């Protein structure tokens, strides 16, 4: 029986049985008994068992983990293996001596303890056994070794770790272990005399060294403070190999834990007294050092003068600029004089400028001047006293009380003259004297309060139309920085550079020249400018953020959509007492909608169209057009800009009888876009709706008369859209309908006219449908019949109607619909005309030519939104209702002709109501909100009286009349009366006026200038300078009066005196009137 090379067996013939003897290996590994089966010829035999007779060798313990300390260069961390109960760590210290640290784990508490002493710089964590070796405890570049031990197992060494070179990060010790109030790491000798040395001992946290340890000498500048100039910096020495780097830092070698700095103190001849200061090393400020003054003064005979105090603010050090700031709290604190002569009492208050002098003889005159921007604010003379000091008082407020007459005829007049410095201006205060034939001067500069140095809007919008890129892609002309307007002339704001934006979310950016002082506040207000005056406003201060001196206001609510609105941002710096210190205004014009342009000329014979810009942004617009000819439609082409707000379209071969024959695209100066299709007809005496319109091919298409007689029986040619695709009719797109063609002659009843055809069944229903539509009626509007027979219904969209000529007697119904709509009246309206005008929600406009009368019986209803109405002289009966929103009403005059009546109800919102002329025969209700009424003439008090009610909210009445007194007899519920217009104002106010029915105002604030007057009682009578007659008996002792009861009341940045009403019997009302200081009271 043999074994073949391939592992099979060779069995000879004749063999029927054989045996296989297999030796079993003997090993030292204990694995227990093992079982298996032999297989021969694919036949598996019985199971065989082999018994284990070996002995196993013991296992190794887990090895410790050794790493470099990631947070301390040059250090190491050693952590025991998972089941170690003992670990031995070995490493050389900085001197090369081997250190051994043995830690053991208590099997009961599982806490690790150190067996034997622990080397300096080594710590052990009791919970984990981790050994941390500080950089100072181990030699740089050497191995740290560790062996892990476990009971019954072989000890196992971890992979050694080689330490790095220590980081050079030595710092002075910052602890104050001795409790003396100064760090232990920087200690200087003190006191020292001039000419001696100060030794500063520096103790470091480690011996790693530091190549650039910061070091500085005392650096005080004020009197009594040590400065660098007090030391001999070129001869400072250092111990233990420490050297001074070129940049002033110290190079500390490794191994040094303590060194000294020896600093020589200069000896001088100036007597300045003892001086104090501190040495600083590594950012650690040491103990205070005192240097005694050992010098003697050398008397300087040169004369000198010094300003030391301005308006109660002391100079910090000679040569200091800007230490004083003129403020309301310091410019009138000193009473300069109080004199009475011939019944005239004059009290003068102001502030004081003080100073000192040296070697200037007593009684020498000191010329004091205060100037700003080359102009003198004050000049005066002071006199040097025996002690060398001098002072001068600068008058800022003079109150003159003049008493004339006697007994019952006695009257008192109080006048206030103010000469205050401007808070937002820096002044030069100069003192000059002549001593010993020499001129000596000193000039100190005051500091202005913070002022705005740069201000602009950031426009981030092209246009919100979805297809704006079809009109333009170069956005630089319309997006970016918006600079302010030069004034409030809207016609000048025609670009980004001149104050025009279409972004209702534009951000305001401004920069101050300096930070506000403690208590000073930055406020941002936004006003609507109405008729050149400030109307309603919003306080946007809480929407302001700043980065240093740069401020940004991001309004949280978009401004209202508009075709033209002026706004003013006002940035105010306010004092701690609430007084306005400086102010910067920024005017801009917002235009978010293209206002459709009217036709100045449209001539089908010359084929010429001239467009006239109505909205201001259409001046400087980019306009393209295309039109129908006998052979089809042209391509778009540019108009000719005539440079005067008009644009010429050359319509060569124009086929005017094709529906929507002209297409006009406009990009206005603000970047807004629009497109409209134009139909032009001679007159409109029939219906014009989505279903029905004029038949351009009918015999009477150019019907010249409204009568519908003779050859025109049945009226103007009309057809249904369903029957005739060329019908001139409205669509749901942007449609323009021009009524009046110049080739037919003068505009009037036969050209450019609208009216109901005078025949049975005649109607004139104008329904424009959806879209931004425009109708221009260039001639006379004739009677349209009943409200069912004829009307204008503009539908939804931003629509516009322009009436260029007169209205005759008749009833007119105009429904503008939802959207931001414009309705213009260019001609006169007769007294016998009746108008029913309504708007849906939106920011709507009604304008009538301000040079003409707006007559007739009018019912005008605006929806919710920021609506605008501007007219000339408004007569007759007017029932005008505004919805909720910030609305504007402007008129030249109201109710000056009889008969006139009605109510103007402004609704809720922050509204502005402005009448530049007489207001009579009408009641105006401003409603809830913070409203502003701007009145330029009388509010009639006679039989034709007008009534003005501010309603709920904080309302302001602004008066601009300059040629007579305005009585407030019929003025209710205004909290502020504003007389600050440059014109001289006089108002009459009485207790009866403010306590009449429906007047709930308890406090009225009247602000104005020193030339303005308030007549208490509206009667021109006084009692004395603080009491003013208002009712009561004929004898002075029985007069009721207003009495000043409080002074210096600050409200919204203005300082007032408070007056309350008292009867002759002593009863006191709870109403109060606050009058700005300086206003004259009679």
Automatic annotation (TrEMBL):
Region (Disordered): 55-85, 136-196
The name this protein goes by in its record: Bacterial Ig domain-containing protein
Organism, scientific name: Rodentibacter ratti
């Amino acid at each position: 029986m043999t074994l073949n090379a391939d592992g099979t067996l060779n069995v000879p013939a004749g063999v029927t049985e054989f045996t296989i003897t297999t030796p079993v290996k003997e090993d030292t590994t204990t694995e227990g008994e093992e079982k298996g089966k032999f297989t021969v010829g694919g036949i598996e035999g019985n199971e065989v068992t082999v018994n284990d007779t070996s002995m196993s060798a013991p296992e190794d313990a887990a090895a410790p983990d050794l790493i470099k300390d990631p947070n301390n260069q040059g250090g190491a961390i050693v952590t025991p293996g998972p089941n170690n109960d003992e670990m031995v760590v070995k490493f050389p210290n900085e001197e090369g001596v081997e250190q051994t640290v043995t830690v053991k784990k208590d099997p009961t508490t599982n806490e690790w303890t150190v067996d034997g002493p622990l080397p300096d710089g080594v710590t052990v964590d009791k919970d984990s056994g981790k050994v941390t070796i500080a950089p100072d405890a181990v030699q740089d570049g050497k191995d740290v070794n560790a062996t892990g031990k476990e009971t019954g197992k072989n000890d196992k060494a971890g992979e050694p770790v080689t330490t790095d070179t220590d980081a050079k990060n030595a710092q002075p010790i910052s602890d104050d272990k001795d409790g003396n109030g100064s760090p232990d790491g920087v200690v200087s000798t003190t006191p020292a005399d001039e000419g001696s040395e100060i030794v500063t001992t520096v103790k470091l946290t480690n011996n790693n060294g530091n190549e650039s340890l910061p070091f500085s000498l005392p650096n005080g500048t004020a009197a009594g403070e040590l400065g660098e100039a007090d030391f001999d910096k070129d001869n400072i020495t250092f111990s233990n190999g420490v050297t001074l780097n070129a940049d002033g830092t110290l190079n500390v070698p490794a191994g040094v834990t303590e060194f000294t700095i020896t600093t020589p103190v200069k000896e001088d001849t100036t007597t300045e007294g003892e001086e104090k200061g501190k040495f600083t090393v590594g950012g650690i400020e040491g103990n205070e050092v005192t240097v005694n003054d050992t010098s003697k003064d050398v008397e300087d005979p040169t004369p000198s003068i010094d300003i030391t105090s301005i308006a109660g603010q002391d100079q910090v050090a000679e040569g200091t600029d800007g230490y004083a700031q003129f403020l309301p709290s310091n410019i009138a604190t000193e009473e300069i004089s109080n004199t009475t002569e011939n019944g005239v009492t004059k009290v003068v208050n102001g502030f004081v400028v003080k100073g000192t002098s040296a070697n200037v003889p007593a009684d020498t005159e000191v010329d004091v001047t205060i100037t700003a921007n080359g102009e003198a604010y004050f000049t005066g003379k002071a006199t040097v006293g025996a002690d060398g000091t001098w002072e001068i008082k600068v008058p800022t407020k003079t109150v003159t009380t003049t008493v004339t007459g006697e007994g019952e005829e006695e009257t008192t007049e109080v006048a206030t003259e103010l000469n205050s410095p401007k808070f937002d201006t820096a002044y030069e205060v100069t003192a000059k004297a002549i001593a010993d034939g020499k001129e000596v001067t000193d000039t100190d500069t005051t500091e202005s309060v913070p002022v705005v140095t740069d201000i602009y809007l950031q426009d981030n919008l092209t246009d919100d139309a979805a297809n704006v890129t079809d009109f333009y892609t170069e956005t630089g002309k319309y997006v970016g920085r918006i600079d302010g307007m030069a004034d409030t002339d809207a016609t000048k704001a025609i670009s980004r550079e001149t104050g025009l934006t279409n972004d209702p979310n534009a951000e305001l950016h401004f920069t101050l020249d300096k930070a506000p002082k403690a208590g000073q506040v930055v406020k941002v207000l936004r006003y609507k400018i109405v008729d050149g005056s400030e109307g309603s406003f919003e306080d946007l201060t809480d929407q302001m953020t700043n980065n240093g001196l740069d401020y940004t206001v991001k309004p949280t609510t978009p401004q209202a959509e508009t075709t033209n609105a002026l706004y003013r941002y006002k940035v105010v710096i306010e004092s701690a007492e609430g007084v306005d210190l400086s102010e910067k205004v920024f005017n801009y014009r917002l235009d978010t909608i293209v206002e459709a342009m009217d036709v100045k000329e449209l001539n089908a014979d010359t084929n010429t169209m001239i467009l006239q810009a109505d909205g201001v942004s259409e001046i400087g617009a980019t306009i393209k057009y295309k039109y129908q000819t006998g052979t089809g439609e042209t391509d778009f082409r540019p108009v000719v800009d005539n440079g005067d707000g008009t644009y010429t379209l050359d319509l060569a071969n124009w086929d005017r009888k094709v529906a929507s024959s002209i297409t006009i695209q406009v990009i206005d100066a603000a970047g807004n876009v629009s497109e409209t299709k134009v139909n032009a007809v001679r007159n409109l005496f029939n219906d014009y709706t989505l279903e029905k319109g004029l038949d351009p091919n009918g015999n009477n298409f150019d019907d010249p008369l409204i009568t519908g007689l003779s050859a025109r029986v049945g009226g103007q040619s009309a057809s249904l859209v369903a029957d005739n695709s060329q019908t001139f009719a409205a669509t749901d797109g942007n449609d323009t309908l021009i009524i009046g063609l110049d080739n037919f002659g003068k505009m009037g009843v036969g050209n450019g006219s609208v009216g109901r055809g005078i025949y049975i069944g005649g109607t004139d229903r104008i329904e424009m449908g959806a879209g931004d539509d425009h109708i221009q009626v260039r001639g006379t509007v004739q009677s349209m019949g009943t409200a069912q027979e004829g009307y204008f219904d503009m539908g939804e969209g931003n629509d516009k109607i322009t009436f260029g000529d007169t209205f005759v007697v008749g009833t007119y119904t105009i429904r503008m619909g939802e959207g931001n709509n414009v309705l213009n009246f260019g001609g006169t309206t007769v007294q016998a005309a009746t108008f029913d005008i309504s708007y849906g929600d939106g920011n709507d406009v009604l304008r009538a030519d301000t040079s003409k009368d707006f007559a007739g019986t009018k019912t005008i209803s605006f929806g919710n939104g920021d609506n605008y109405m501007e007219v000339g002289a408004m007569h007759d009966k007017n029932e005008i209702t505004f919805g909720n929103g910030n609305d504007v009403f402007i008129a030249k005059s109201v109710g000056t002709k009889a008969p006139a009546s009605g109510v103007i109800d402004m609704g809720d919102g922050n509204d502005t109501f402005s009448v530049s002329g007489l207001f009579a025969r009408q009641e105006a209700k401003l409603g809830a909100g913070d409203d502003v009424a701007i009145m330029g003439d009388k509010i009639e008090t006679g039989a034709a009286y007008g009534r003005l009610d501010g309603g709920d909210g904080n309302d302001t009445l602004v008066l601009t009349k300059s040629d007579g007194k305005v009585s407030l007899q019929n003025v209710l519920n205004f909290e502020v009366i504003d007389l600050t217009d440059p014109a001289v104002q006089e108002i009459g106010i009485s207790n009866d006026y403010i306590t009449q029915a429906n007047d709930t105002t308890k406090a009225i604030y009247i602000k104005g200038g020193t030339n303005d007057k308030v007549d208490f009682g509206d009667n021109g009578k006084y009692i004395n300078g603080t009491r003013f007659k208002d009712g009561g008996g004929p004898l002075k002792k029985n007069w009721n009066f207003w009495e000043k009861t409080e002074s210096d009341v600050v409200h919204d940045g203005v300082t007032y005196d408070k007056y309350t009403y008292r009867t002759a019997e002593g009863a006191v009302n709870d109403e109060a009137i606050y009058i700005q200081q300086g206003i004259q009271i009679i």
